[in-house]
Specification:
221 residues, alpha/beta, 8-stranded parallel β-barrel, 11 helices, globular
Length: 221
Amino acid sequence: MIYMADTAGLKELKELYNFFPLEGITTNPTILKQSGMTISKAIDEILKIVDGGMMHVQMISDKSEDMVREAIVYKSHFGLDDNFYAKIPVTPEGYKAMQILKEKGINITATAIFTQQQALVASKAGADFVAPYVSRLDNISSHGIEVVSDIVQNTIDFNLDTKVLAASFKTVDQIHRVSMAGSHSATISPELLMQLIKHPMTDISVSTFQEDGKGLYDISF
């Protein structure tokens, strides 16, 4: 599974990129607002950290022609190549923009997905990634994991090139379940990424190894 960080927090990203095998970053207006940075500042700083990783950047326009213009400008402004993904919402204008962008050779991440059909239409419109929101579905008494599973199954049944990018998590268990459902990728907050690799028994095991190894490792390094 492809792991991405859902943040514009520079301190957290620097720490994660020291050890976590991340393959990209996802951003949106809410994340930028939390970071306190404008898009020009945030993306410039993030690019210094991600070293060629995928950059998924949210378009903020309502009209398809403006979304297309935004995507072209952002890709050029930040000097991005195939690592740039224009995040487009699954609205009528968004679907129109996806088809235009695909013709122009710009990568697309379809976002704000809450149903299997929204994702399937986005895939047919040219989306490279489709991003269903897990926790937000659960919050309205829907079943986020089942929606992800259905979308994954569609990619198999219809031989689609689109990858599922599961998003919006509150727990490690949700991440575990979308992984087991076959999600190709997930974008995760720094806090949950850290929790993902932690287990108290691991800490106990490492501590025991260090204690038991005292005086036994007699080769200098």
